[in-house]
């Protein structure tokens, strides 16, 4: 159950607490160091002293980001190291750091974004733990309370139950907060790696965070950071302005202005939510500021106009055109409604003109923002199409070079190997006619050699066809499991004693070809390294898994040792690559009796369980 912590949740409680409780002090230190340095650098930029301080600020920001990545790695999540722009040595190399967008992203994250995240997660974890401790120890410290508080009926039982519930749910809550910290910070720090060999999150079966290229990650991070920063600034400025200028209650002003800033953030992810919240917040702002319409701009205060323009910019750049036109139309309709419901008899002529001018200004400025946003979106789309076209062109060039290289290899194979195989086939096939006085055993031996060479020559021609074209393997006829019996028969003709247990296994072409190559490699190794030894071949299917084994006994003492030729040992390496690509496993090695065994397991439907 969720309330009962198991051994795994208790074991991960330590790493989760370490991630949360070390993050807040590190972030406070980063904010205390980076923000003053950034302010000083900006203030002294006119004197060129600040320009020299900016590289130091960015270097420190990257250092804090490096420590944050180390924290996440110790927690169990692998974070990809970002690619910083090469700078070089000397003063010029330091100045080049100011042109690295990745370092500016580190500064924005460590100086602005990380603080609210870490405050939320760390304080929630501390409050949860302290609440559990206070509830469980309430009978002890409760005796120190005044008598009138100690006489409340059932307070100790209620405190104990609450403390017990908080204690039982503490591991799950701390892990949830740790994962929230990782989800919010990992994309801005570089993104979680997608290597399947890496461990999953501690104590969870959830998949890893989605990753993307460094350029896309940096672009998305900058977009979110820019929108969040502008929305935060708008809320910080609009709240006191709304309270002082329009005499609105602070709590009401906070809710209304926060809704206006949050509309842009929601619109970046969900356009319908941003559109709806923008209209609601604008209407609420008009209602709460209506009593002061004679003394200040109305129905659109300056801060509300800026919030509306920010939302329109986000919708225009990030989403289809009809979302931003709907938001602009909603603002225009609200302006018209405000003008209609306003009673001209209660207003002086100047006030009426001010209200009308305010509405016209909103419609005009927001319309210009919409046009600029749509233009920017079109430019971004065109740039993306150009980049995709360049990527496709580069991919086509790569494929062309690959085909040229494959064609060169095919020519070399055709001119050397295929020619030699053809000579062997012709010589073995005509030996009975060219050589006199051959007995039947020798003639049969030459015929077997000719048959094997013809088969090898046919496979060589199939390989050459693959190399010379861009066709897939399924489009070229290749041997499969049904050809293993013929392979065993041809190997017996070489004088080997082979016993075979072959089942009729329906398998996909790739699995069939891999199985055939496994048996071929096992027989080849046995014939080459254990001449005269008994060989046993099995091809079976059990529980959706193809089982292949090639075992040979020890060679007889009279057998001459096989001379090692260049390239020996590459066959088993190729077998491992073939089988591994299909999610299978390979086991090979000496047997206790002095022989050798090759055992392979290949899934017929999907990868084998780990």
Strand order of the largest sheet: 1-2-3-5-4
Biggest sheet architecture: 5 strands, mixed
Mean pLDDT: 79
Structural class: mainly alpha
Return the string of H and E elements: HHHHHHHHHHHHHHHHEHEEHEE
Radius of gyration: 38 Å
**What gap, in angstroms, lies between the N and C termini?**
27 Å
The shape, in one word, is: elongated
Into which percentage range does the β-strand content fall? 5-15%
Number of helices: 18
Number of strands: 5
Our count of domains comes out at 3
Which segments are poorly predicted (pLDDT under 50) over 5 or more consecutive residues?
193-214
Q: Helix share of residues?
A: 55-70%
What does this structure look like?
By secondary structure, this protein is mainly alpha-helical. The protein folds into three domains: 183 residues, no CATH class; 165 residues; 130 residues, Histidine kinase-like ATPase, C-terminal domain (Heat Shock Protein 90, 2-Layer Sandwich). The protein contains 18 helices and five strands. The chain has a five-stranded mixed sheet, covered by helices on one side. A hairpin with a 2-residue loop joins strand 2 and strand 3. Helix 4 packs across helix 8. The chain starts with 6 loop residues before the first helix and ends in a 7-residue tail after the last strand. About 4% of the residues have low confidence.
């Amino acid at each position: 159950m969720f309330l009962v912590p198991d051994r795994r949740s208790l074991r991960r409680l330590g790493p989760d607490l370490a991630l949360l409780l070390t993050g807040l002090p590190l972030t406070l230190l980063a904010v205390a160091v980076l923000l003053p340095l950034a302010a000083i650098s900006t203030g002294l930029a006119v004197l060129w002293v600040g320009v020299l301080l900016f590289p130091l600020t960015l270097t420190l920001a990257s250092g804090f980001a490096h420590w944050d990545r180390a924290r996440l790695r110790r927690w169990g999540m692998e974070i990809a190291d970002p690619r910083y722009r090469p700078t070089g040595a000397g003063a010029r190399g330091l100045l080049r750091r100011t042109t690295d967008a990745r370092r500016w992203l580190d500064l924005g994250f460590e100086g602005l974004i990380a603080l609210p995240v870490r405050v939320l997660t760390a304080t929630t974890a501390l409050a949860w733990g302290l609440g559990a401790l206070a509830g469980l120890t309430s009978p002890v410290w409760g005796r120190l309370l005044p008598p009138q508080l100690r006489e409340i009926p059932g307070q100790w039982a209620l405190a104990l139950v609450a403390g017990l519930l908080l204690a039982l749910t503490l591991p799950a809550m701390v892990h949830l907060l740790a994962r929230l910290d990782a989800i919010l910070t990992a994309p801005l720090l570089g993104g979680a790696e997608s290597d399947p060999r890496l461990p999953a999150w501690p104590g969870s079966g959830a998949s890893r965070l989605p990753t993307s290229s460094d350029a896309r990650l940096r672009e998305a991070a900058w977009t979110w950071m820019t929108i969040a920063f502008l929305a935060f600034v708008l809320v910080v400025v609009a709240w006191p302005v709304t309270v002082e200028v329009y005499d609105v209650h602070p709590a009401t002003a906070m809710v209304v202005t926060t809704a206006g800033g949050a509309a842009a953030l929601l619109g970046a992810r969900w356009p319908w939510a941003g559109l709806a919240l923008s209209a609601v917040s604008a209407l609420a702002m008009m209602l709460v500021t209506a009593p002061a319409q004679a003394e200040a701009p109305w129905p659109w205060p300056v801060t509300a106009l800026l919030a509306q323009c920010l939302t329109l910019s986000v919708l225009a750049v990030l989403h289809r055109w009809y979302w931003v036109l709907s938001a602009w139309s909603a603002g225009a309709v609200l302006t018209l409604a405000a003008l209609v419901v306003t009673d001209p008899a209660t207003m002086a002529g100047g006030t009426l003109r001010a209200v009308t001018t305010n509405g016209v200004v909103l419609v005009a400025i927001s319309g210009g923002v919409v046009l600029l946003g749509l233009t920017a979106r079109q430019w971004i789309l065109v740039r993306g199409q150009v980049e995709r076209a360049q990527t496709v062109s580069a991919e086509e060039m790569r494929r062309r070079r690959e085909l040229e290289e494959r064609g060169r290899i095919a020519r070399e194979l055709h001119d050397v190997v295929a020619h030699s195989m053809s000579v062997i086939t012709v010589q073995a096939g005509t030996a009975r006619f060219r050589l006199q006085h051959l007995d039947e055993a020798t003639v049969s031996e030459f015929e077997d050699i000719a048959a094997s060479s013809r088969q090898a020559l046919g496979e060589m021609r199939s390989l050459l066809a693959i190399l010379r074209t861009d066709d897939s393997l399924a489009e070229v006829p290749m041997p499969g499991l049904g050809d293993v019996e013929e392979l065993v028969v041809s190997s017996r003709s070489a004088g080997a004693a082979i016993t075979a247990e072959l089942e009729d296994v329906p398998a996909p072409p790739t699995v069939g070809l891999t199985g055939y190559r496994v048996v071929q490699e096992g027989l080849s190794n046995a014939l080459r390294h254990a001449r005269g030894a008994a060989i046993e071949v099995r091809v079976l299917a059990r529980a959706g898994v193809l089982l292949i084994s090639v075992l040979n006994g020890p060679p007889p003492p009279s057998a001459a040792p096989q001379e090692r030729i260049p390239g020996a040992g590459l066959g088993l390496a190729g077998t491992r690559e073939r089988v591994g690509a299909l999610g299978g496993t390979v086991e090979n090695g000496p047997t206790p009796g002095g022989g050798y065994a090759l055992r392979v397991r290949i899934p017929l439907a999907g990868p084998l369980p780990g």
